[in-house]
Write a structure and sequence with these properties.
Length: 151
Amino acid sequence: MSRACLMCAEVCGDVVVPGGHLEDGELVTAFHSPIVEPATDVFVGYLFVTARRHVPGFADLTVEEAAAVGVSIARWSRALEAAGADHVYVLRVGLRAPHLHVHLVPRWAETPDDVPWMHVDDWPGARRGAMEQAAELVSDLRRLDVQGPSS
């Protein structure tokens, strides 16, 4: 863990994430995006899946870590879809936080067809909310946790 890393702080619990961690395993952690000042709200359903160990990218993962990250991405994508997402965008950016974290961005059913993927979180009708609304969805996702097929 790195003292200067925002992702490490979120993984360790030093930064409060709405509803707490969805998954808090030995190799991977999943959680809802927190509200980071100066923002006062968050796109409800925007999740992160991150390696617990401070590594910059996929190429730095062990085989076990890579498998755990992949399973977690599938698991929480299924839960978002069960909660009403028509689609879940999966991306890795990592320019400002050199700690591998994968973004899971839901496209909710009410999103107009002409809203491009990169704006599903900021169009005028996007599901934006305070910590309470995000925490409520986290609670719903825990109940909807869909492990998926075993083989």
